[in-house]
Amino acid sequence: MSVKIYKPTSAGRRIHSVTDYSVLKKNVQTPRHLLVAKTKQAGRNNSGKITVRHQGGGFRRVLRITDFSRIDKKDIPAKVQTLEYDPTRSAFISLVAYKDGTKRYVLAPEGLKVGDTVIYSESAEIKPGNRLPISRIPVGTLIHDIELIPGQGGRISRSAGSYATLQNIEAGYALLKMPSGEIRKIKETALASIGQVANSDWMNVRIGKAGRKRLMGWRPSVRGKVMNPVDHPHGGGEGHNPIGLKYPKTPWGRHALGVKTRTKKKYSNRMIVKRRSK
Predict the structure, then answer these.
(1) Which CATH number belongs to the domain containing residue 270 in this structure?
(2) Furthest-apart CA pair in the chain: how many Å?
(3) Are 12 and 207 within 8 A, CB to CB?
């Protein structure tokens, strides 16, 4: 995939770029049972109060139901019918048709083409799109859509361009190098798909203008230091001043920016061999 750059016909277009979607299939007839309308919360709870700031607006989107498990389709080959854009995720998705007649959406890895065959099987070939238990995958292979708990469905490496590297298998556990750099143990019976998730150039796209961000559902963010002292701990002062505190704070006085939020006694700490690099 690549990034498409337009001519600078306006101030917003000058630093504006988009993902090149020319490789995707257009005017696709999506099966109705795979579509769900996504309701907008705009950062509000059930009583209508804003609990998450800077959310709202945005283009209306329809959620594509994606199969992250494939566990009920073991040893049934599926033919790739489309490569599609998904408005609710950064990765591309593929509509696959199984031999028993059912259709599902799955994450599209790099190198997958329309007409290819993918399968979930313990003896599947090591090629992009196939799904296997980690114990059946060679060391050094790039994998995505990885289960944290066997049978749970994929949880790791699902965004555009992401992958984890299988480093070793020992004593019933696989050592995976995560996209963050963390090395973690996962049971060897967990499932994973082969390859790197497609649309790796997604991270190089430049938004270009504020209006495009509003269409994505982001409302404007106001810096605390330009507020009054009554509105924010960083507020007050004359002109352009620093925050005047030992550490940054949220509008409600809690520590912000760089604070560790992971529970120190979290049950899965024993599964982490090496923390992610700083």
Answers:
(1) 4.10.950.10
(2) 71
(3) no
Alpha carbons 123 and 41: distance in angstroms, whole number = 44
Give φ, ψ of 22 to 5 degrees. -65, -20
Q: Check: CB of residue 147 under 8 Å from CB of residue 153.
A: yes
> Is residue 213 situated within a structural domain?
no
Contacts of 45 (CB under 8 A, 6+ apart): 51
Report residue 278's pLDDT band, with 50, 70 and 90 as the boundaries.
low
Cite the beta strand spans of the chain per DSSP E: 3-5, 17-19, 35-37, 62-64, 78-84, 93-98, 103-107, 117-118, 131-133, 142-144, 146-147, 154-156, 164-170, 173-177, 183-187, 191-194, 272-274
Of the listed ranges 27-31, 117-121, 255-259, the least confidently predicted one is: 27-31
Cβ neighbours, 10 Å, residue 225:
17
Tokens of 212: 């495009």
| 186 Cβ contact list (under 8 Å, min separation 6) | 134, 146, 147, 148, 173, 174, 176, 271
Residue range(s) defining the domain that contains residue 247: 224-278
- Specify whether the CB–CB gap between 245 and 251 falls below 8 A: no
- Work out the mean pLDDT of the chain and round it to a whole number: 90
Residues 6+ apart with CB under 8 A from 13: 6, 7, 208
Are 78 and 134 contained in the same domain? yes
For the chain, what is the domain count?
Answer: 2
Residues 81 and 161 both lie in one domain: yes
